[in-house]
Fold this protein.
Amino acid sequence: MKTTKLKCVKCSKIQPLHNSYFCSFCGSILKVDYDYLPDKKSFEKILLSNERSLWKYKDMLPVKNESNIISLGEGFTPLVPLKNILPDIELYGKAEYLNPTASFKDRPSSVGISVAKEQGATTVAVASSGNAGVSVAAYAAKEKMRCIVCIPKNTSIGKVSQLLAYGAEVNFVNGGYSDCFNLVSQLCEKFGYANLTSTYINPYTVEGDKTVAYELYEQFQEVPDWIIVPIGTGPLLAGVWRGFNELKEMGIIQKLPRMVGVQAKNCSPIAQAYKENREVHSALDWSETLAGGIADQLVGYEQDGDYTNYLINKSGGDFVILSEDEILDIWKKLPLVEGIFAEPTGACSVGAAKKLFDDGIIKKDDSVVSLITGHGLKAPDLVEKFMNDINIPTVSKIDDFNNTK
Ligand SMILES: *Cc1c(COP(=O)(O)O)cnc(C)c1O
Ligand SMILES: [Zn+2]
């Protein structure tokens, strides 16, 4: 599947592969456009390969020369049946927290940084709520690239410690994700650094997210009715949707899943616009949320949210808004009843499945995949804050045990 060009998602104008980030005609979002897709036979051959990373699907990814691939073994995450939390539906969690840096961001990072290498980059920069920065930092370390990261000042200590361990140049920014986004955009423009921010700004990173769809097809052997995705800007959802559409084009599958987005009420510019059936406005009235990984205000790139809503509508999907209480509830319940310790953002996709079932939108026996996007160990500060009412005894002899239960 050769790639020689980019295509604007709005005006459809074709332009050459390059490292600038917007349509040169209308300023909209660019996506990688392939000359051809493998046919059904070639795809089935790809499935037989023993490669245990998302690079198994390299024929459908935008790296021309294999020697440019930078990999830490990302992808190939388990699909875990969640039987206890919602027994009325056929629910699965895609364990994206098991990626090399403990979030799904390793998919877009691995593909994005490999293309950046191919285009000659030696310095990469990334705006992040934490996970994207952590992920790019790991791949940059492996390739000895310089890595500049801008994150909000209140980012969880788990993510900050990962960044420091990987040797990234960390910068705290006063404000929210959007402030980081706009600073990194200016920095990349001024110094020519490769921008690996994982919104739609870099057309190559989204391609990494596609591989979730291929894996789900392999693991599920059919197409789930619903796929639920936590949304900051929306590239993960867009990537998964794109992957399933490619499978359909290749004649591998017939139906497509309904795509569901989830945002936290405290910062939900895309979900609010979806509910009111209007264009997205940036969230100037946002406040902090437990789901920090999806708190994107979209200041200056509101059109990204419109593209996400366009895709959700096209899929016949839906958008769920969760309150802080609902996020806290599902985040605490998931490890207790399913043995899955996610960061609060990652648990939102399961919380949304519950809400859609309670509202009668997801029906009994529907098949549902919730993408559990990040690991609970990234947020030890939140654990301390919300679980410190548990009294842990200190024991030294057998009589110290509390055996009254
Ligand atoms: C980045 C992130 C998301 C949201 O992904 P986008 O596709 O960038 O909107 C979801 N969950 C976690 C844990 C993340 O870090
Ligand atoms: Zn355009």
The radius of gyration is 21 Å. Residues 8, 10-11, 13, 23, 25-26, 28 surround zinc ion (ligand 2) (CB under 6 Å).
